[in-house]
Amino acid sequence: MRKKIEIYDTTLRDGMQREGISISVDEKVQVALKLDRLGVHYIEGGFPGSNPKDAEFYRLMAGRKLRTARLAAFGMTHKRGVRPHRDKLLKGLLAVDAPVLTIVGKGWKLHVRKVLRAGLEENLAMIADTVRYLVRKGRQVFYDAEHFFDGFKDDPEYSLATLRAAAEAGAGRLVLCDTNGATLPQEAAEIIREVAAAVETPLGIHAHNDADCAVAVSLMAVEAGAVQVQGTVNGYGERCGNANLMSVIPALKLKMGRTVISDRRLEQLTEVSHFVAEMANLSPEPHQPYVGENAFAHKGGMHVSAALKDARTFEHIDPALVGNKQRILVSELAGRATVLKKAAEMGLDLGDDKKTVDRLLKALKQKEHEGYHYEAADASLELLLRREMGLFEPVIRLDNFRVIVQKRKSAVISEAKIVLRQNGEGELPIAFAEGNGPVNALDIALRKLLLKSFPKLAQRLSEIHLVNYKVRILDEHKGTGAVTRVLLDSSDGHDSWGTVGVSENIIEASWEALVDSIEYGLSRRRRG
């Protein structure tokens, strides 16, 4: 019977070493609780002896009942010349309410001599004394053998001696760390098999991604006998990151048949990945395997047609198993199956109307040829299809607009004037507004007009806001005369949508995307 594989999450410690990441103590608590619901077995919350934030995290977690996980705290062997019971960092570890203590020690002679500046026997004693002291204090101790693979290749006997020192002192796991991320998968597996034959204590793997092999090394380590995999959500970590648990967990469970987490918890994987990204103030990586937005996205016409007939033709797993979903992308590569699928998603039943489908496909490909990009502009795509089918009644009917940008001393002022058409006679609706840029000024003026003309839309209009604005030059060789594509992301606090505008004039392209954004936001409420 195969042993259950333990997942040891170090996002809140090792993952926080990624450049640009810094989360609050309260956010760390939220992430820990989310990981516990996912079903990981150990959550390393930080290094309490290194900074006040990590110490505060453990204080806030004290007494909380976790469903599946055990809390771990990270530390290192005692300082040279200081006995364990007098070492401040070890005292700090014992002061936190964490049943598991993970201690890192030197497994490479190069580091012992040049970084630790200790003798080889002295290093062995530091490892053993630290582990023994913490075990006697009633804690479960895991030993992280730093730079183990580099050390083993340099001197296997000494590296094994460091493991034996920790094991004989009572370490419950010996975690082999590929700290420089330089080891290739097959090489790692061979070394782990040698180690497994030399020591009886269960082994773990802690791989970094500098050679883009951290996930593969982790999986090969399990195949070679490791029972614990350490890693981070989304592979966050220093330099190139750590082993990505969002890939490791489903690969172990779905590909290798290992017991890791339950089916029900696995369905939370995509949600957890995106949640942690939001906490870290990073955009979720759309091309990330298993949990990325594009992990099960199909664009090529033949691919789409095949996937719609049987998803297994182009999907290596059912996306629902990891909480993800299939996406059909619409572009110049689209075929009839793509248009039918997207129309159905939008509630448009085209049935067997081949003539309409062909007309929609022709309009779509023409727009893409002009520079429109509907993969990231789902709202503009829906409006395009509805316009072509005669199912869309616009709210915004532009007569003209004017934008003035003026430099006044140290400030730049943008002023917009918008005039809308109206049915019947009378003066045309007109509004002026200033903004911190031309697009902002247009947005403010347009909202003024809509509120004046359609007061019943006030609540809905107030909910719609811009969350992202991206500009792309499509034909750079034309310089300032190039065609510009503008992509807007908008939200009403519950749902998000994308719109696109294309023009040689960046203001006109922005206006087009802005109008689509508001039209879509308002039409959703009218339809719903």
Ends apart, CA distance between termini: 53 Å
Top-tier CATH class of the largest domain:
Alpha Beta
* Radius of gyration over C-alpha positions, nearest whole angstrom: 29 Å
CATH topology of the largest domain: TIM Barrel
Please state the structural category. alpha/beta
Kindly report the spatial arrangement of strands forming the biggest sheet: 1-2-3-4-5-6-7-8
Can you give me a brief rundown of this structure?
By secondary structure, the chain is an alpha/beta fold. Helices cover 41% and strands 19% of the residues.
Topology of this protein?
Layout: E1 6-9, H1 25-38, E2 42-44, H2 52-61, E3 70-76, H3 88-95, E4 100-106, H4 109-114, H5 120-136, E5 140-146, H6 148-154, H7 156-168, E6 173-178, H8 185-198, E7 203-207, H9 214-224, E8 228-231, H10 245-255, H11 263-266, H12 269-279, E9 297-298, H13 301-309, E10 327-328, H14 336-345, H15 354-370, H16 378-388, E11 398-408, E12 411-420, E13 430-435, H17 438-453, H18 458-463, E14 465-473, E15 484-491, E16 496-503, H19 506-527
Helix pairs in contact: 1-2, 1-12, 5-7, 6-7, 8-9, 9-10, 13-14, 15-16, 16-19, 17-19
Describe the structure in your own words.
- By secondary structure, this protein is an alpha/beta fold.
- It folds into 3 domains: 6-261, Aldolase class I (TIM Barrel, Alpha-Beta Barrel), CATH 3.20.20; 297-367, no CATH class; 396-453, 2-Layer Sandwich (Double Stranded RNA Binding Domain), CATH 3.30.160.
- Helix content is 41%, strand content 19%.
- It contains 19 helices and 16 strands.
- The strands form 4 sheets. The chain has an 8-stranded parallel β-barrel with strand order 1-2-3-4-5-6-7-8, surrounded by 7 helices. Strands 11-12-13 form a 3-stranded antiparallel β-sheet, with helices on one face. The protein has a 3-stranded antiparallel β-sheet with strand order 14-15-16.
- The model has no long low-confidence stretch (mean pLDDT 89).
